[in-house]
Amino acid sequence: MEADLRCNVVQCRKALNNEDIIVEICSRALSFWTYQTTQEACFQEIMYKSLEEKYTQLEKQVQGIMRDAQVEITTLTKDMELEKRKSHDLAEQLQEKGRQFSKLQSMYDKLKRRSLVPTIQQTINNTTTGIGNIGIGTRQSGVPIQRLYGDNLMSNNNRTQTWNSGNGQVVFGAYKDGSLTDSVSKLIPENLQKNIQEQLQFSGIKGKLGEIRLFYGIGGSEDIPKKIAVVGLGTNKNNNEEEFQALERARKAAAIGVRSLREIGAKNIGVDVMTHEHGAAEGATLGLYNFDSLKSEKNRKSPVNIEPIGVSLEESKSSIKEELTWNTGLIYAIAQNNARKLAETPANHMTPTHFVEEIKSLLKDISNVEVIVHDKEWVIENGMNSFLSVAKGSNEPLKFLEIHYKGGEEGKKPLALVGKGITFDSGGISLKPSAKMAEMKGDMGGAAAVSSAFYGIAKLGLPINVVATIPLCENMPSGRAIKPGDVVKAMNGKSIEIDNTDAEGRLILADALYYTSSTFKPHSLIDIATLTGAIFISLGEIYSAVFTNSKKLWRKLSNAGKITNDPFWRMPLNEGYIKSLKKSTVADLVNIGERGGGSCIAAIFLKEFVSGLTMTTEGENNNEKGEEKGEGSISIDKELGDADKEKKIRYAHIDMAGVMITSQDSGYDVKGMTGRPTRSIIEFARNISKDQDFQ
């Protein structure tokens, strides 16, 4: 076998040495490869043609389906349009049938009630013996019942009305147990009360504070309102409820009720006085505010009038100075709405000149008021270089507004109010970031609050003397503007190095505080300013901060904030903070200190310009017997001495930067500039007007 194998190998070697054999083999191999390649190409061509035919068929099928779908869509569209027209025609027919039914129902009710039920007015006459003028009374000339929308501040209307004063649209209050308020229960028929209570039960309302239901035509008579908003007041009023709690419940409920009726087109609304007539008037007035005077006519909301249910306006006016009534509530709220409007108005429409004209117009018809407007020349003559340094960067001329109310005894020391009036704050050379810079139109929120509170005080006719001063200017960058490192001399002779031009509010207030305290020598001096962003970090949007040297002044402010639910929190006015303001090598003070305690440093800076203050190292404990712990309770060594004991001027700085603006509508709060703390200052003034020892 090995021999055969060797033989084959030898033969193969011989064959490989034969060129003809090799050529033959290669030729056959090439022919086979060519054949195989040709066959494969033919197969691929056949497959491609087959796929192409299938694709063509599918394309034709898809096109056919699309054509059919388009035809179907067109048909359906035509059918829909036809159905819409039919639906519209049916709706019109139903509306017409509804109108006819309403007319028939009204006629039936009239015929039925003529024989079975006394009229509403008869019911009132039968149930109010000895009560006097229950209804809403007679409007007196000069009583500030207002058109409560936008810029419309007041409207007087001499007419007597029944409890159904809203021309078919009213707001009632209801408690958790389903009962209505006393003010409403005394006036409306028993059958209507039962009807409302049944509807409340059916609708699932629990009577929680702010919960609301709207009812349409539930009375079945033209004498009964067609639209009734019932708002929850929470648990029933009891003898242990404090006044501030009753006030706040009425505010929230009234605001929610009138807003709901406004949304469905109400223009005249009767408002139940609920748990407190002052609070109801405040809530309704504040809740209906909106700023739309710069919009085109078609985009403005219609004004809304409100009338009280369950109180006589004549009686309300007669006790206006002694207690909180419907009319005091209107005045408080009108004042805050005015502050809102001033602060919300864009800076090109609310320059210092415009601001002055607004206040002159606001106060022109109030007795015992004097308005004085000072210009740049007067400021220069009085050495108010700190104020002037801020104003000179703008093309808008500065104004120094001085207003007097003489409601008290002649010669008696006044209450003094000072408001920061930066009508637009760009930051100056120390320019602010562009984000939210537009909100700096509201940097005159202090001026808005002071001037509007002054209006409220004068409108109430309080028996006190008041002086208010407001420095007004813009803080703008320009070739004339102050620069970081500049030094100016204030009216009291102290030099100030401008370390940051965006700390301008304290510069204009410095001269205003010295002028006011040294010229008028008030018993109490309060400045209000959107002074520091740091106070927002400290207190957020709830409290305005108070820095004061007087426990009596603090207590009065704290109590006022409690009554109005526009509260204050006491912060330290401590001499230790002055150190960071005395680091300058070229001036007595710098206008900005270290990062920490920025609001406290700003307050102590302002204190340096109040005439009649002294510093002591005697501590002041705010938690002495008789004062509650908690709100604003601070005890720090080296506090300013007690002004009440030392017979010095009482001074308070209110930093309201944190409460300048609110981001949403809620209760009687309206998105935008808040106008705070206007009502609290009015209430503070009303309170001290009854305290001769304080004045």
From TrEMBL:
<dbReference type="GO" id="GO:0006508">
    <property type="term" value="P:proteolysis"/>
</dbReference>
<keyword id="KW-0175">Coiled coil</keyword>
<dbReference type="InterPro" id="IPR011356">
    <property type="entry name" value="Leucine_aapep/pepB"/>
</dbReference>
<comment type="similarity">
    <text>Belongs to the peptidase M17 family.</text>
</comment>
<keyword id="KW-0645">Protease</keyword>
<feature type="compositionally biased region" description="Basic and acidic residues">
    <location>
        <begin position="622"/>
        <end position="638"/>
    </location>
</feature>
<dbReference type="GO" id="GO:0030145">
    <property type="term" value="F:manganese ion binding"/>
</dbReference>
<keyword id="KW-0378">Hydrolase</keyword>
<feature type="coiled-coil region">
    <location>
        <begin position="48"/>
        <end position="114"/>
    </location>
</feature>
<dbReference type="GO" id="GO:0070006">
    <property type="term" value="F:metalloaminopeptidase activity"/>
</dbReference>
<dbReference type="Pfam" id="PF00883">
    <property type="entry name" value="Peptidase_M17"/>
</dbReference>
<dbReference type="Pfam" id="PF02789">
    <property type="entry name" value="Peptidase_M17_N"/>
</dbReference>
<keyword id="KW-0031">Aminopeptidase</keyword>
<dbReference type="InterPro" id="IPR043472">
    <property type="entry name" value="Macro_dom-like"/>
</dbReference>
<dbReference type="GO" id="GO:0005737">
    <property type="term" value="C:cytoplasm"/>
</dbReference>
<dbReference type="InterPro" id="IPR023042">
    <property type="entry name" value="Peptidase_M17_leu_NH2_pept"/>
</dbReference>
<protein>
    <submittedName>
        <fullName>10412_t:CDS:1</fullName>
    </submittedName>
</protein>
<feature type="region of interest" description="Disordered">
    <location>
        <begin position="617"/>
        <end position="638"/>
    </location>
</feature>
<dbReference type="InterPro" id="IPR000819">
    <property type="entry name" value="Peptidase_M17_C"/>
</dbReference>
<dbReference type="InterPro" id="IPR008283">
    <property type="entry name" value="Peptidase_M17_N"/>
</dbReference>
<feature type="domain" description="Cytosol aminopeptidase">
    <location>
        <begin position="500"/>
        <end position="507"/>
    </location>
</feature>
